[in-house]
Amino acid sequence: xxxxxxGASDLKSIRLWYWVGGLFAFAAAGILLGWGxxxxxxxxxxxxxxxxxxxxAGEVGTLLLALRHPPAPRIPQHARPADGEVGLARVTxxxxxxNPFDPRYRRFExxxxxxxxxTSPASLGPSRPPPLLGRVAWISLFIGRDGRSWSDSxxxxxxxxLRRAGVWIxxxxxxxNAPVNVELAETYFVTEDETPEDVVIGFQREGEHxxxxxxxxxTKALVGMSRAAARLGFRxxxxxxxxxxxxxxxxxxxxxxxxxxxxxxxxxxxxQTELAGVSLAVCYAREESFPEPLTKPPYTDSxxxxxxxxxxxxxxxxxxxxxxxxxxxxxxxRDIMRLSQSxxxxxxxxxxxxxxxxxxxxx
Length: 363
Ligand SMILES: [Zn+2]
What we know:
Number of domains: 2
Radius of gyration: 26 Å
Bound molecules: zinc ion
Oligomer: single chain
Number of helices: 7
Helix content: 25-40%
Largest sheet: 9 strands, mixed
Order of helices and strands: HHEEEEHEEEEHHEEEEEHH
Shape: elongated
C-alpha cells in the first residue's frame, strides 16, 4: 500500500552510478592515458576535483531533501483495517485473579514459569516515537497512593474509560483509512507507593503563555514506575517493560501508569525517556494542575488518555496558540491535541496531528 517513494530509489541509483561510474572512468582514463606524469596531471586532477565537488553537492542536496521529507512510516505486516472494536491482548504466561467487576481483565500475580521473566535486557529500540499503526497493545499499571489502594471496581471503570479512548482512536483511524487495532492487555498490574514526593513548581512556556508546571514531572514518573516495578518483582521499570512487552504480541506497546492521585497527566515519548526503551503515559485519577491526594472518587478521563497516548506516537500539543498560526486547514478547534473540548465525541484527529502520527503519508 505504501512503499518507498519511487523518486527516492531513482535518486539512489543516480548517485550510485555517479560515484561508481566516475571512479571507473578515472581509473580507465588513468590506465589508457597513463596520467600521473609530472606536469601532465594538472588537467585530470582538476577534472577529478570537479567530479568530487559536484558529487558532494549532490549528496548534501539529497541529505537536505531527506530531512525535509522523512521517509513514509512503515506499515507493520499483517496490519488490519481499523474496525472500531477494542480487542484484548494476551499477556503470555501471566497468572492472576480475574477482576470481579469485569472478568475480561485480571490482576497480575505471578508468571506461570518463574525465571522466564526478566531475563531479557531492555531493547534500545528506536529513539523516536513510532507511527500509530498496526496492533497497539495498552498495558496498565495502577499505583495506590496516599494510603489508598485501587479497588477492583475502580480498576474496571478505568478499563471502561481506556476502552472508550481506544474505540475513539479506531473510529478516527477508520476515517483516515489507517490500519490501527487497539487492544487492551487482559492482565494489569497493581501496587502501592508510599514514597513521599516533593512537588516543586516551575514555569514553562505553553504556546503563547507561561504557566506554572510541576518540575521534573518526567523524571518522577520514570522513577515512580521503577519503584512500582521493583515491588512487583522486576529489576526496574525498563526490566518490567521489556519482560512484559515480549509476552504481548503487538506492533507497539503502550504503558499507561495510573497513580491514585489527582495531578496533571503527561506523556513520556521514547525521545524523552531516561530509561532505555520505556515510553509511558501517566493518567492521573483526576485532572489537576499539580499532584495532590484524591478527594473525589477516581475518574480516568478518556479524552485525556487519547491525548496523552497520541503524544507517544509523535503528536504535538496545539493549544495555547491561535489557530491561524497553523498552516491553513490543518488544525481546527476540535483537534484532540488542542483539548478545547472535554468530550471525546466532539474531538477528532485533524490533518496536522494525523500527519504527525503517520496516518497521512501516502507514497
Ligand atoms: Zn499534551
